[in-house]
Amino acid sequence: MPTAGLLLAGCAGPQSALDPGGDQAHALFSLFGLMLWVSGAIYAVVLAGLGWALWRAWRRRGTDARRDATLVGGVDARLDRTLPVVAGAIVLGLTVLITGSFFADRALFATRAAPALEVRVTGHQWWWRVQYRDRVSDGWIETANELHLPQGVTVRLVLNSADVIHSFWVPNVAGKLDMVPGRTNRLDVTARRPGWYRGQCAEFCGTQHAHMAFAVKVEPPAAFRAWLAAQAAPAAPAEGRGAAAFQATCAACHAIRGAGAAGRAGPDLTHVAARRTLAAGALTMTRGNLQGWIAQPKAIKPGTSMPAIPLTPADADAVATYLATLR
């Protein structure tokens, strides 16, 4: 039983292509199932042909020399009649797979009318910039390392890279698509099952490739609209030691809308405490992890572009407390 449980462990969960929660993922899952059955059938036909050949060869052991002369490499030459059967099964199987692949490809990239929502996703070493089109102001609402999708609504993801080749992949929702510097790719996704999922960069992009993840939440349209409205709001004006220390040391790289910080090198932190994870999935979002990340980012994520901030312990504590209020 433990072995069976281990074998089935990849069949479900927040990062499994075998547990589809969206139209595009379901198309890929159906193609996988077709490949599994067709390949299994061909494998069974080949094994049956081999078994029959061995059985016929075994039956003919000890016969006269004339019949033994018909053996070529231990296989009765008369068994050549099985070759058309095996070849036919292979050709038929490949034809079925090609047809299934064609229709799956059409389902993934079918031309549709303009989706109800457009989201820009830009890969950085090693984090994700996520921007939602605000249809009221025609501007962009920015967050990082977290993607929210309205249930049952087709969303167009506009994929770009700011540095090297990355690859966007949320196995439960859609297949992967590369993000190439200087090139814009588009991926339409329609998530059907609400819940939290995990996305991951699927193209090796450097030291922290394995820690370039993002959280994905599929939620009812009304909940999504409420979340997006909250994200569009600026941060509440803040005063005190934490806000002052942030402005002095962090504002050059990070933006906090409404607080006078407009840096673009790093993630937007306007509502950072409302996110599920920190540092592109490397840490869960807690006040303690915020302070640890501020103090020693390279100890947590070696190679990250974020430097260790020269803050006194009291200032680091104050900045972490301030950021923890940004919800």
Instruction: Summarize the main sheet.
Output: 5 strands, mixed
> What Rg, in angstroms, do the CA atoms define?
28 Å
- Which parts are unreliable, with pLDDT below 50 for 5 consecutive residues or more? 69-75
- Strands, total number: 16
Helix- and strand-based class? alpha+beta
The count of helical stretches stands at: 9
Q: How many structural domains are formed by the residues?
A: 3
- The assigned CATH architecture of the largest domain is Sandwich
What is the mean pLDDT? 84
Approximate helicity band: 25-40%
Enzyme class: translocase
Organism: Sphingomonas citri
EC number: 7.1.1.9
Subcellular location: Membrane
Brief overview:
With 327 residues, the chain is α+β, with helices and mostly antiparallel strands. Helices cover 36% and strands 24% of the residues.
Task: Walk me through this protein's architecture.
The chain crosses the membrane at residues 27-55, 83-104. The protein is an alpha+beta fold and 327 residues long. The protein folds into 3 domains: 11-108; 117-231, Immunoglobulin-like, CATH 2.60.40; 241-323, Immunoglobulin-like. 36% of the residues lie in helices and 24% in strands. The protein is built from 9 helices and 16 strands. The chain has helices at residues 2-7, 23-59, 65-68, 82-108, 221-232, 241-249, 287-295, 297-300, 313-323, and strands at 71-72, 75-76, 117-124, 127-134, 139-144, 146-150, 154-161, 166-170, 174-179, 185-190, 195-201, 213-219, 255-256, 261-262, 277-278, 283-284. The strands form 5 sheets. The protein has a 5-stranded mixed β-sheet, covered by helices on one side. It has a 5-stranded mixed β-sheet with strand order 6-12-11-8-9. A two-stranded antiparallel sheet has the order 1-2. The relative contact order is 0.11.
